[in-house]
Amino acid sequence: MDYAPPGRFKTAADFRDRWRELDALGGLDCDLEVGGPDDPLSRPFDFATPTGPRRVGNRFVVHPMEGWDANGDGTPSDDTIRRWRRFGESGAKLVWGGEAYAVQPDGRANPNQLHLNPDPGVDDARSLRTLLEALKQGHAESHGSTEDLLVGLQLTHSGRFSRPTGSTMSPRIAELNPVLSAKYGLDAGVHVLTDAELREISDNMVRAACLAADVGFDFVDVKCCHGYLLHELLGAHTRRGDYGGSFENRTRLFRDTVKAIQGERPRLAIGCRVSITDTYPLFRREGDAIGVPRGVEDHLPWRHGFGVNAMDPTTSDFTEPAAFLEMCRDLGLLAANLTVGSPYYCPHLQRPAAYPPSDGYLPPRDPLCEVQRHLHTVRTIRAMVPDLPLVGSGWSYLQQFLPNVARVEVRLGMVDFVGLGRSMLSYPTLPADVVAGRPLDRKQLCRTFSDCTTAPRNGMISGCYPLDRHYRAMPQAVDLKVLRKEASKA
Length: 490
Prior knowledge:
alpha/beta
């Protein structure tokens, strides 16, 4: 490691010097003072929703995550309920869904993912109501009223990365991708979803959205990110039929799903978490385990991504992403939650970290550069589509300087909300501490050890094993130490 993680900087001024030094495009900064009720991160935000204006109390967002801890029938376990309650206790006023909710069993990314169960003996409404009530109760007990709290449910089908029965992939894909097929050892016989099957998935998304509305969720997220089905479909340039090829076709299933939800539950707001730019998949290089693209020149033009330059797929092209977000705006969506890439084939970009997960690779450069790519991406989108509320991602690696950098982006109007994922597992009350003007508890800060990813990659539940006593006491904590040690030797 030839770079200093944020935790090694003693002061915000020291960190700011490094932050500015790395910023090749220019314009990024780090405020030295942060926090308190008058801080930009503490200010409310007014959304336009189908039922009229809705105010949320601050600029922090809880991202949806896969806990690998639900019961096999898709109902929540005690661990699931605990996570959702802690998200409510966090003080964040916009919860983008406590977990990705699979709309049918074969679309689960793991066998213990919350999902819509067609078995009439499973009470899906009761399951979602239990989680929503736990979250709201946690929020009310810690922060008083829930009137300025907005809670959504993320709807997903994992597509290529479906693993509904165990660790073995059971892909349901939008189009063949030769590089990902080689990376994961998939042959040409992998199942490509038919147009009829895609329409059935859309129907199930609508059913799940209706259930969420009836239970009391404020909005749903039609998920288009991280290599999962609807994200892959956005880049399905080589697919034939109604859902591939042209931009109009590749966005058709998303459009149809949104319109169908609006027709069935017109009072329900809708958002979209979208990987607004992608990159060519990376591989672990022999000798030093650094992640690198492999064989790019053999696959040009690149026809399997969204928001990438076809002749240099390691770089972005925002033409189609801007058109997609204009479409979201015109459809009346609540907001766009922007992320980049995928945790499967470019984790260094999607989830900047000093320590890779067991199936990952060492970052090819200082992870702060990837945080900066997130921020510059959102700035680019804000300039192209200025009238759509935006949630940003990729903040956790900033650690104790997260509020200092986030404050700049919100203060300048470059982004509206700061989305937090894995840092919510180790330090769920970070938003509350910032809003109250309290010093951050550095012992709770996510240091990006990636255990919350390594654990589910190896069939265990996800959580912060190093910092959360609940997970540290589990037998899996010992297994993870062994896995980390073995991964470091590979």
